[in-house]
């Protein structure tokens, strides 16, 4: 799941699922200028994940 891509593509529904499932606690929801929740990613807590192709 790419949270940044989902948000920038306007596919985010601000449900908070990304915040709840992030194993590193790197995602939090903040209110943006329009009053909507926006995922904020703490880059210091993230790591690259390689997903094997099947």
Structure description:
- The chain has 54 residues and is an alpha+beta fold.
- 20% of the residues lie in helices and 19% in strands.
- The chain has helices at residues 3-8, 17-21, and strands spanning 27-31, 37-41.
- It has a two-stranded antiparallel ribbon with strand order 1-2.
- Strand 1 (27-31) and strand 2 form a beta hairpin.
- The protein is globular and about 30 Å long.
- The two termini are 17 Å apart.
- The mean pLDDT is 84.
Order of helices and strands: HHEE
Strand order of the largest sheet: 1-2
Report the biggest beta sheet as strand number plus sense, adding barrel if it closes: 2 strands, antiparallel
Strand content: 15-25%
- First-last Cα distance: 17 Å
Low-confidence stretches: none
Average of pLDDT: 84
Number of domains: 1
Helix content: 10-25%
Radius of gyration equals 12 Å
Number of strands: 2
Shape: globular
Indicate the topology.
Blueprint lengths: L2 H6 L8 H5 L5 E5 L5 E5 L13
Antiparallel strand pairs: 1-2
In short:
By secondary structure, this protein is of the alpha+beta class. It contains 2 helices and 2 strands.
Entry keywords:
54 residues, alpha+beta, two-stranded antiparallel ribbon, 2 helices, 19% strand, globular
């Amino acid at each position: 799941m790419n949270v940044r891509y989902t948000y920038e593509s306007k596919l985010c529904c601000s449900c908070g699922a990304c915040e709840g499932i992030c194993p590193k606690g790197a995602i939090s929801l903040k209110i943006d200028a329009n009053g909507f929740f926006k995922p904020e990613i703490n880059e210091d807590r993230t790591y690259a994940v390689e997903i094997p192709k099947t």
